[in-house]
Each structure stands twice: as structure tokens, then as C-alpha cells.
Amino acid sequence: MKNAVTILILCALFVSCASFCQPRALASGAEVAPSATLTLIGHASVKIKTSSGAVIYIDPYHPGDYSEGADLILVSHEHSDHNKVALVTQNEGCLLLRTRKTINPDGSYNMFEHMGVTVEPFPAANKNHKRDQINGYLLGFDGLVVYFASDTDKISEMESLAPRNVDYALLPIDGQYNMGAQEAMQCAALIGARHNIPMHFFSADPAAFRPENLLFIPYGESVALGGE
């Protein structure tokens, strides 16, 4: 009889321990949500994938991986190193935005929302790029703000980005058709983004771009967005 009681007690303890010791994620059925990602394909060509799976391409041009279909394509201007839309397969319902849709004749901008992504055109300009023919982009998704400066020098409007709590700022640093690394560092200081990403190198040395909160992404590489 004693042996039977002992066996029953041990069985009860085993069942209790097995239930208690399961990993929390399995016990609750919870899964880790996927992170948004950003890929610097090269030059000013960028791919972003939101946590919900929406795929965004900005200024397709540089050789790289465009195999994933696009839900949103942004072309900042019509220079040939920014507008190779044919590289990208468009998913059904894909939204393609070029300056004829984003910039109005009076110089104002049109905002868009698509698949959980807000798209706000932002001024860009220098001697090689007229304001009415180019714009940068502020993208909002997954609680993040990404600023794509496009081809530009430092402009006064960048000061307005400081209160926008930009998480990721992509800035050109070539010093040939746009500002160089030193001026781009001034822009980074104005904007105050959590992460500053150099792009559009040409022959410039990306190591010359040394702002606070530098995030260097080699061409073709990806980073997870969010967190610190």
C-alpha cells in the first residue's frame, strides 16, 4: 500500500513539474514578432520590409537583389541612377510614387498611406537638383520614422526634423553631385536621428562620415530596425 501511495505522489509531482517547466512562449502560444528590416542595396537604392511583410523599394538602380515583389516603390527624382523601376516586380496593388504624384505645381506635397506605411515627401535641393523635380521621403511604419534624404545638400528645412524623432536617417555623402561627408555630418547634427546611415558614396570614402549615432551598412547588407 505504501508503495502505491508513493508512486501516486511521484506521478503527481512529475505532471506538475512538466506543466510548470514548459517554455513560456509555448505555454502561452505567443510567437516572437518579426522585425522590420532595411537593406542598403547600393548607391541610393534601398529596400525596407515592415514587420507585417510590406516590401518597399526606394530609388531602384544599383545592382542587387530585387527578387522580392514590391508593395510600394518610391522614386525621389528622375535621374538615371535613381529611377530603374523595371528592376522591381510589382505585387498586385503596388503603389508607385514619382515626383509627378508627390509634388504639386504650387510646390506643395501630397502625403500617402499604403499597407500601414505613411509616406511624406520632404524637400531636397542643391545646384544639381531643382526643388520642383526632387523630394526626399519620411516614412512611418511599425512605430518608426525613416528619413531618406535623396540627393541634396544641407537645407534649412532639415531643422524641422529634430522634433520628428527620426529613428533612421539616410544621407548622401558623395561630395560630387551632393553634399560631402562633412556637410552630411552637419545635417545629422540638425536632424538628431537615433541612427545615421551614409549612402550615395561614388568615390567618396564612407569612413569620412563620422557623426554621432553612426550606422554603417555595407552595400548589399541588411539590418533589423527597432530597439536600440
Entry summary:
The chain is α/β, with parallel strands linked by helices and 228 residues long. The chain is 17% helix and 28% strand. The chain has a single domain, classed as Metallo-beta-lactamase, Chain A.
Task: Based on the model shown, name its key terms.
228 residues, 17% helix, 12 strands, six-stranded mixed beta sheet, Metallo-beta-lactamase, Chain A, alpha/beta
How would you describe this protein?
The structure is a single chain. The strands form two sheets. The protein has a six-stranded mixed β-sheet with strand order 5-4-3-2-1-12. The model is unreliable at 1-30 (pLDDT under 50). 17% of the residues lie in helices and 28% in strands. The protein is an alpha/beta fold and 228 residues long. The longest helix is centred in the N-terminal third of the chain and has 19 residues, at 2-20. The chain has helices at residues 2-20, 24-28, 99-102, 181-191; strands at residues 37-42, 45-49, 55-58, 70-74, 90-97, 112-114, 117-123, 135-141, 144-148, 168-172, 195-199, 221-224. The chain has a single domain, classed as Metallo-beta-lactamase, Chain A, CATH 3.60.15.10. A hairpin with a 2-residue loop joins strand 8 (135-141) and strand 9.
